[in-house]
């Protein structure tokens, strides 16, 4: 059976796409970013590239710093449509302070999205994770403090820093007890941003992201997200594994995350704050696997959680996003089924750009 002959999740009519994306996003001044310099660290990756495209549409002058480390998902194809309009700097932040300071000095906004997000990799090489998720952010914050202290800095944090939830849904008052090296370093980086606000007056904000998915996501393996790899298997019509499957998660479509980033940059209420992102909908992983089976005709097999991975799994997690809704009027607009449609169709059309070029063995 051809891919196009499968169930309707493979086909998203243009009007359906437009209607979904035209649902009311919270309003902010669209001219705020016009002709403004915006730096995106990690800007060739999944979230950064989508943000760059949106900012280009808003008239921003965009610079990207990205080390193009394959395991982290940086991919020049992600910005192919706007490459001629942006500046790309290929270096590691913590290894080129002089260039970083010069770049930071001319910015109006910084979206700090760089880092390493794989939990198991962090356990295998803690010092490398320390460089990626702590040293680089301290280097950036020092550059801002010394050369451009009045700009807005938005940091992409993670729900992983909460550890195993004590209650659900998890709000920002939940304790932070990360259960792996990556979570500890992410928590430290988040605190660096908040400390530089409290002590030096930097205009920082942190967003705790959870299970973001959409076009441009890394799908080679499960280093960044299981959902990306499942989508790859769906496109290639291969069976995928579900470990346990009882654990519940919420999911954020990339357009919703981009809007949250822009709102955080445009509203003074966000300065010095931490916000959860997520969804009011949550699913067990078996329920998500069943969606793949029903709509994509994709088979899966349930296996026991590997012991080494089980030790750093957080169990059930889903977010309480009341604070960002009240402060910034942000609400997620794209439900999981609709988001999977968009993402699958994108990957089906560009699968070689996200597999062959960045094939990294586990």
TrEMBL record:
Molecular function in Gene Ontology: GDP-mannose 4,6-dehydratase activity
Keywords: Lyase
Pfam family, one: Epimerase
NAD-dependent epimerase/dehydratase domain boundaries: 38-278
E.C. no: 4.2.1.47
InterPro entries in the record: Epimerase_deHydtase, NAD(P)-bd_dom_sf
Enzyme type, top EC level: lyase
Family classification: Belongs to the NAD(P)-dependent epimerase/dehydratase family.
PANTHER family per UniProt: DTDP-D-GLUCOSE 4,6-DEHYDRATASE-RELATED (PTHR43000)
Record-given protein name: GDP-mannose 4,6-dehydratase
